[in-house]
Amino acid sequence: MGHEETVYEALGLAPGDERHWAFGTGFHDPLAGVDTTVPDGIDPSDLGQYCLMLGDDALVLAQRLTQWITAAPELEEEVALANIALDLLGQARLLLARAGSVGVLGRSREKATASIPDEDALAYFRDADEFRSTALVAAPNGDFARTTVRLLAAATVRLAVFVRLRASRDQVLAAIAAKGVHELTYHRDHAARWVRRLGDGTEESHRRAQDGVDVVWPLLGELFTPTDVETRLTAAGVAVDPAVTRDEVTGVLTTVLERATLRVPPWPADEPPRGRSGRHGPDLAELLIGLQGLARAHPEATW
C-alpha cells in the first residue's frame, strides 16, 4: 500500500478516478516486479478460470467471515475474524486481477462501467452461476462452532494447495501463493485452537462443535475432484491437482478433531466439483446480494 497505512487512507489519498470501491483500488500494483507473462503452452482461458476458482473461494469466505462483525462471542475474536477476512480479500483481489489480466471477464465487464478495474468487475458484476467457489465456503455460518470448523477445513485445504503453488510455472500464482502461505498458516492454526477449545470444553461447547463437524464434513466431498482445467494446468506445471492434497488434509483434520475429543465422521465420497462449474445452491445467490448490492446500485460512485 505504499505510504498509506490503512485502506481508508488509500481511498482518501487515491488521485482522481482511482478513488472507487475499497476492493481492488487505491493500492500500488501488487505484482510490481513479477513477470506477468502467461507461461508458454498455457491457454490463458484455463489460467483465468483457475484463478477464478481460487479467488472466488477467498472472496466468498471473506464475505461469510465479515458477517460475524458485531456478532462474534468476544471482541478479540471479532478482530481476529475480521483480519482473516481481510487476508482472504487480499488474496481474492490478486487472483481476480490475474484472471482479468488474461481476459476472463465476459458478462461482468459488460455490466460494469469502463472505469471499474477488472477485479472489481469480477467481484461485483458476476451472477452466481459465473462464480467458481465451492459449497464449503458458500454455506451459511451457523453458530460460532460451525464457523470455526468450516474455517479449519477451508484453511487446511487452501494451505495445502498454496504450499505447492509456490512452485507454479506462472510467476504470478507463485508470488500470490508465497504470500498466502503465511496468512493461511495462521488461519488454520487459529481455527484449530478454537476447535480444540470448544470440543474439549463444556458439554454444550462440545455438542455444538460436533454439530459443526457433522454439518461441514459432507461439504468436503467435491474438494478433491479435479476439473478438466485443473488437470490440464497441473500437467503443465501451473496448477495443483487437489487430489494430491487429500492425505495431508485428512491427516490434519483428523488430528485436530481427535485432540478436541470430537468424533471424526466418515470421509465423504468424491463428488463432481459442482461449484467449480458454476452450479450452486441458493446460499451463494443470497450472499452475493449483500456483497454486490451497493456496487450494482451505484456503479459510477466514487469515494
Automatic annotation (TrEMBL):
Pfam families: PaaA_PaaC (PF05138). It comes from the Bacteria. Keywords: Oxidoreductase. It comes from Blastococcus deserti. GO terms for molecular function: phenylacetyl-CoA 1,2-epoxidase activity. This is 1,2-phenylacetyl-CoA epoxidase subunit PaaC. The gene is paaC. Its EC number is 1.14.13.149.
